[in-house]
Design brief:
InterPro entries: Chitin-bd_dom, Chitin-bd_dom_sf
GO molecular function, one term: chitin binding
Pfam families: CBM_14
Structural class: mainly beta
Number of helices: 2
Helix content: under 10%
Protein name: Chitin-binding type-2 domain-containing protein
Shape: elongated
Oligomer: single chain
Radius of gyration: 22 Å
Keywords: Signal
Distance between the termini: 82 Å
């Protein structure tokens, strides 16, 4: 019996699978582990196996399996639906990208509406004898 563990010990491939909602087809992309985003290293910590909203993009999702992750991209410019855990049409999803992070409808309701903040401070004068 051959030990394939040694052969695969240096090979790290991750399959990225995207689901096409309307046709039921899936496309597969392969990325080397070294190409994965280091900021997502702990994205699956404490989560059950399954798909989750990507923290940076409405059109991406993260597939967690046994503590590891793969990134998936929704086809045809769709967004990931956190309720159904599938890609769906943008008009059905309330998700917006803010400064490289995403905000879903639930998060928006939790924090309330965005209110612009402007603070006008009076000029500060330092007395000459203080220097």
């Amino acid at each position: 019996m051959r030990n394939f563990g040694h052969v695969w010990s240096n090979v790290f491939f991750t399959l990225l699978v995207t689901h096409a909602v309307t046709s039921g087809q899936a496309s597969v992309r392969v990325k080397r582990q070294s190409q994965m985003d280091p900021l997502l290293r702990n994205v699956c910590d404490g989560k059950k196996d399954g798909s989750y909203q990507h923290p940076y993009s409405c059109g991406l999702y993260v597939q967690c399996f046994q503590g590891s992750y793969t990134e998936g991209e929704c086809p045809w410019n769709m967004y990931y639906n956190v309720k159904t855990r599938f890609c769906d049409y943008k008009r059905k999803i309330k998700c917006k990208e803010v400064d490289g992070m995403i905000e879903t409808e639930a998060e928006s309701a939790m924090f309330g509406p965005q209110i612009p903040v402007s603070i006008n401070h009076p000029p500060i004068t330092i007395p000459k004898n203080a220097l």
